[in-house]
Structures are given as C-alpha cells and as structure tokens.
Amino acid sequence: MKSIQIEDDLYHFIASQTQDIGESASDILRRLVMPESLLNTAQDNSVKETKVYTIDSDVSDVQSTEPTCQASAVFAELEGQQLQAIPKMVERWLLVLSIIHKHHSQQFSKVLSMSGRNRTYFATDKDTLLATGSSTNPKNVPDSVYWVITNNNTAKKINMLKGVAEQVGFNLSEVEELIKIFAPELI
C-alpha cells in the first residue's frame, strides 16, 4: 500500500464520495479516476505491499513514512454502529476505542503515554491500572491488548477520546467530528 499527502479539501472531497460503509480511499479513487479497462487489469495484477510512502510535490523521489491516519475508515465503521442506541456511555466509549484501534493498531500504542495527575489511563494489563488507584475500574478495549480506566464521567471520557484521536493522527476537524459522533447529545 502506498500513501500520498493531500490537502484537507481534497481529502474531504474523496471521503464525501463514499458509497458503501467501509469503502477505502483507494476504492473511491479507483472508481472515480480509473477507466474500466484499467480497473480490471489492475485488479487481476494487484500485489499488496505493506510499505507506506509519501510523495512530496516539491520532491520527485518517494520517501518511506509512518502509517497514515485512517479517520475516514473509522467514521465509516462508526456510522453503521448506531451509537446512540447504546445507552451506557462506557460501552459506547469502549466500542469507539475498539474501532480506532482496529484502524490504527500500529499508532495505538501511543496512548500508553496518556495519564492524569495520579492515574495512568491506558496499559497493556489490568493490574497496571489497578495499581494507580482504588476505583479505576479497568476494562479491556475490545479486540485489543489494551486496557483503559473507565471510572470517569462522560466529559473526561470525551477528553480522553480526543487525546486518543490526536495520538493516532486525527486532525482537529476529525477530532471534532469523532466527538460529535460519540456524544452528539452533549455537543
């Protein structure tokens, strides 16, 4: 897989062209710009690579870089979840964290640095979080090795979610959109 850096307006246009939940940016661009004859050939000869590249418009060479933020994939998956139907904020919050982890598994380890005055917020085991306070109520982030403290009010959960989104690479407008999806009744 290769990655290119694009301006925000172009990114938002591409994301707005999504037709199916979970459709990747590559699928959207392929549909929009590739002639049908090339599309069939590309699918037949496709070889998936795991390296990620950035093409800088000022430089003609290709440079390896960190994985790109997949905010649009997170949003697409969240749309199908009907979050407002989940009455317990902690369950809703764990689901959102799980989806972010699913699409940003390499960057998600950065959340381990998040902490408050007296508490560690994330760890890779329950005991680490229990050791930071008597009422942390740690829970596993579903489908991950990460644990998070859950004994916080909704405002604190929102702040922690903002921090997680920033850690994995969401830009400011994407962070705001994530919070609107997570807790529209509080915005």
UniProtKB/TrEMBL annotation:
GO terms for cellular component: cytoplasm. It comes from Paraglaciecola arctica BSs20135. This is Negative modulator of initiation of replication. One of its GO terms (biological process) is negative regulation of DNA-templated DNA replication initiation. Negative regulator of replication initiation, which contributes to regulation of DNA replication and ensures that replication initiation occurs exactly once per chromosome per cell cycle. Binds to pairs of hemimethylated GATC sequences in the oriC region, thus preventing assembly of replication proteins and re-initiation at newly replicated origins. Repression is relieved when the region becomes fully methylated. It comes from the Bacteria. Residues 1-32 form the Negative modulator of initiation of replication SeqA N-terminal domain. It holds the Pfam family SeqA. One of its GO terms (molecular function) is DNA binding. Residues 78-178 form the Replication modulator SeqA C-terminal DNA-binding domain. Keywords: Cytoplasm, DNA replication inhibitor, DNA-binding. It is found in: Cytoplasm. Belongs to the SeqA family. The keyword Transferase does not apply. The keyword Protease does not apply.
